[in-house]
Amino acid sequence: MMKCLLSLFAFTATLHAALLVHAAEDLTVLPPPTDEASESGLVYQALQKRAHEAFAKRKEVYENIKTAEDCEAYQKRMKDFFRTQIGGFPERTPLNPRVIGKLKGDGFRVENVIYESWPGHHVTANLYLPTTPPPYPGVLVPCGHSHNGKAADGYQRACMLLAKNGMAALCYDPIGQGERYQVLSDQPNEFFKGGSRYRPPHPQVQYYCTAEHTLMTVSAIPLGSNSARYRIWDGMRSIDYLISRPEIDGSRIGCTGNSGGGTLTSYIMALDERVQAAAPVCYSTMYRYLIDFNGPQDGEQNIFGQLAYGMDIADYTLMRAPKPTLICAGTHDSTFKIDGTWELFREAKRFYTRMGYAERVDIIEADAPHGFTIKLREGSARWMNRWLMHKENAIFEGDLPVFTDEELQCSQSGQILLDAGERSLFEINDSLNQQLAKERAELWSSGDLGTLRDQVREVSGIKRLAAIPRPESKVVGSIERPGYKITKLILTPDHGVPLPALLFEPETPSGKRTLYLHGEGKQVDAAPGGAIEKRVKQGETVLAVDIRAIGETSRKNNRKIGWSHGLLGPNYHEWAVAYLLGESMVKLRAEDILVATRFLSEYQSKGKPQKVELVAIGETAIPALHAAALEPDLFSEVKLSEMIPSWGEVVKTPETQNQLINTVHGSLKVYDLPNLITLTGKDRVQVSHPADVKAGLATRKP
């Protein structure tokens, strides 16, 4: 009995001592961040620097535009790029328009209308018509980020003002707003999820429109598209509807919208030649002011590779020169900074002057915050009046009572997605992917893995390992544990973001080397008795690394994306700037993995690099699979856990969780995740605990 008690006492003391040692251990590698780095993060700062380099290159190109011919060549190049990057446009199909109801106003009338922008995918809109004899100019009014879309007071008043002054106005609900939300719940919601301040326009609506727009972008990116494509197409089809009306003079079309509607006005006016007069409101600034202050905005406002190509927000105005354009802005706009607006206007004024029409671009600055405020509504109406009616009336708004949301309702249920036969954007994307799946199957049936690997490399943009310089390495500390040592390392690749790492070296190494990557950080499985220690005690040398935007390099508290409801993860802005630069976080992380693998392979190898086992869990799994597929000779085996099975699941699922950071633009045109397993070698890849795209990556299927 006494021996048992002594043994128990000895075991307890040993365990207590081990716990004390572990409690004293600090597995942090990087020094505490500065105040600036703490706010924006090391990865964002590095990408921000690259963005500024892109801005400088674009400025050089702009300053070399000297003649009208130079301007026209620049416009064509930008328009072609823009169309390509959003995925082009589909063929026009019948609109099948219907007038649902009619309203009478003071000096105007309203028709509630529905038409199809895609087969089975409807647009809900209000057409404001003057009471004077036709024909009328037609002005498209894309909505900003109002929860109730076209029914918001400011958009109603802008349309009424146009109609009372002899111009028809068509205001439609964007997808993800008003009557066109695409992510509905089965249960009623009193407030938008994640807050108790705003009530949704319908009980089954869950998320702010900004979150919905970005979820649509998550779905579209693997197809080589973006929610901007669908938003622009809605606008173009709305112009189709306008000019189909006998009351409308199709040669006199205008476009004006605020905030997100200013974005859409800018896009549509750049790409649709029918827009003769345009007035984007509270959007026009230079991208530098977004990236340096609030960060890139929601999904449709970021075009793949635009900064790397040299396309800034100013270019939407330059693309349409010399057609009349009025820049409308608010002095106190906290998102689209007024200093950037004036910089944009100066670029536009010089460009229009080079083309011989300096008077066709102008600016209004209202002493007001962000919004379609009264001075901007009046200013845009006067601009349309000047260029579409050829009149110079001083238009003032006065008192304009608005209609209720119910009076302007077009759908039967209040949400068009609940009406019979309606196709969601996610269903459209799924059907597009099904067609691509047939093309992929034919491509991959060729069996030429070398050619297929080259195509994957081209789409993903991941560099060959031979083209990536070796990182600098620095030892910053060590920890002794029974039977092995942990060395704290900082690997600094050529991109400049330090990658913190823990190198676990056993006293008696077996020669086996393992790169261990965890989506929640290198420290997760690094505790005594954890998964890494079990490997080390079997003689493995293990390198655990935080690749970019993981662990110590992840954004800790991004207060600027509260609108995302947590659906997009903490590193949305890192993803967005990389995307604007023409890269994915998958690419950046895969290159980090290759750099770390080579470091481990060559570590104390006496000139004979060793193959490495690759273990990747959660958010690191997809970039790890890319690294292994493109450089398979580096790896002995690959073990992936908590990875989604296919991007096809992302495309068709409305409510995904933290999947944006795992997307690759246009990947499904060439490959899906199972194809990467083929490239790596099915006999060398083990996949366990597949993740559900609807849940956090750490949530496992039963």
From TrEMBL:
Tell me the Gene3D superfamilies matching this sequence.
Answer: alpha/beta hydrolase
The name of this protein is Acetyl xylan esterase (AXE1)
- Single GO molecular-function term? serine-type peptidase activity
- The protein's organism comes out as Gimesia panareensis
Could you give a single Gene Ontology term from the biological process aspect?
proteolysis
Q: Which residues form the signal peptide?
A: 1-23
Give the superkingdom in one word: Bacteria
Q: Residue limits of the Peptidase S9 prolyl oligopeptidase catalytic domain?
A: 233-349
